[in-house]
Predict the structure.
Amino acid sequence: MAVTNAFFSPTAVDHSGGFVRAHISRVPYLPGLDGMRAIAVVAVMIYHANNSWLPGGFLGVEMFFVISGYLITLLLIAERERTYRISLTDFWLRRARRLLPALFLLMGLLTVWTALFEPDALGQLRGDVFAGFFYVSNWYQVWVGLGYTATGDFAPLRHLWSLAVEEQFYLVWPLVMVAFLGRTGTRRVANFSRWLFVGAIGIAILVGLAYHPGVIGEPEVTPEAYWSIAGRPVSKLDALYLSTVARAGGLLLGAGFAMVWRPFAIVRGPLRDRGRAFDVVAVLAFAVFGWMCWNIHLVDPSGADGRLFRGGLFGAGILTLLMIAAVTHHGSAANRLLGGTVLTWIGTRSYGLYLFHWPIYQIIRNVAGNSLRLHEFLLAMIPTLIITELSYRFVETPIRIGGVAALTQRVRNREVRRPTGLLVGAVAITVVMATFAGVTLATADLKQNDITESLADGEEFTVSLSDVEIAVPVTILPVTVAPTTVSTRPSTTDSAAVSTPTTLPDGAESTPVTTADAALTMVPPAAAAPVVGPASTIAPPPTTLSPAPVPQFGVITDFNAITPLALTPATTGLPLVAVGDSVMLGAAEELTASGFVVDAVKSRQLISYVPQLEAVKLSGALTSVIVVHLGTNGPFSDASLALLMSVLVDVPTVVMLTGKGARNWMAGNNGKIRALPEMFPNVTVLDWEVMSASCEGRCFYDDGIHLTQLGQNFYSLIVNRLLGLA
């Protein structure tokens, strides 16, 4: 630490250059740091628009954390050296003037917009606003289970989690610095920095140990991915990504580096002539950071990215320190290059850009999980840039430099005889908007959004097939089994009725029964209903299914062309089974009323459910008909789909539904599903992506995926029509 101690000799004087305490303690404006902020915020905005464009763009937030820790610590040390004290009141007031005006502006504008155009979302917005106002958004999101990766919600303030982490740091860290510097001054800060680096390493290790490496489903599906706190499941992923404790590593790295790397002190140190070397370091650091942004992701269907939680965040922090070292060195070109006009403009407005871009994205795409297309992203940039600039010029800067207070004082002193109409109008608009926003939020019902409430209702009509016990076999009278024709290619069988023999109870010769005349009759005795758990009973399905005379299978795209399938008789298990994710969950009540046993949960992934379904099959719960709707929540591979079909290959009638929604993986998943009938003659595909267009009225919530009541009815109708239940 000899080098670092040389940097920190506050009483020393550079006799050649005349550097004294006051000069060395000054924190200069470094445009290169604004350039780094610009790169960070651009990466984040691209990631938020469409994570396939830059899967690791969220690492820009870690860069922000490190820069914040560095600058805040520099300022506190400099103040202590200049004035021999740290004024906590002055520090917190400066932070408040810098951060609160734009935040309050955002909340006011967003509340007014939501009240006018999304009134159903006011209940959820109320909780988000209160959490944002008190800078606890990160803990609020962890607790309510609406983390950064949650989809299906209109969540215009979800990005405030990172500002909450920083503000919590701003509240606590000055107290730590006062306690430390009050006893030792700045003479031993270099030694103290070691403990900060050790703390950052310790946090990285704990995050790596706590990280859950597997698939992340609902708590009842993957309980190992959750902690139970006060009887409430808390996602490990959310806690490790959003919590202040887990994300403190970047802030500590920046703070520790500020104690050993001071811009003006470097001029006197042994590294004063190493500017070119630091330029090389900066290039390498930026290159590696760019690689991480391009290759590391947050979460995919297989789970969170282990590289991120097992050293990735720490590595991004170290790379940021190397960049800071370069841009703060007086002899490097990095500060000049990153301090160019464009990057400086973006960097000085990075707070506003980060604050306003996400809500505008949400207004365009309606829900958090949808990706923006390129033209939507470009469209979103127009209001983002305009609002950011207006906020910076007329709200943030005047308040930050005390311009509003000065103008008020001039009015009081009658130096300004008559306030301008612009000023009066601005004050009036502010008062009206604040009053309207406050009253609107105060009177809004604190509730979940419509999607969440709809899915909560559906959960009352679902069971876990893994818990089903088949008490007595279900007996179903036999019916003809008909070959079927593919709707997308010519039929290979005659459309006339096909007969198969049936075995009579007395063992007599079988007689042909045609599909034209047959009716599938289920006759389960009262005691034959499968029991779920110790008390609940699954009601038996309707007694009669009427198969159509026209057999078919393949890919069905036309609602009006649906003709019921000829069904194979079942003698054991559950006659009608439906498994799926949140789309099917929304229609669980309607499917249950048709006789289905529904096993559907939110966020279910195909690959994660295959082992459970295999166990269900081994238990004897599966019989002749199963409806499967999976693939909404992430991509699946050919191997995963093949594994699913290995479980279902012996089920006579398998109905697969394609997915619908503006998600990057949907086209690939649907293509794989549509190809199944070519390989598995027991599979019929209901092309939900195409057929859903036939649903009249508002059949989907704003995400274009989850079903309203009309959509639930239509969804159940096409399934029932295909199976002869409607």
Remarks:
- The chain has two domains: 2-81+134-146+160-340, 454-501+510-722.
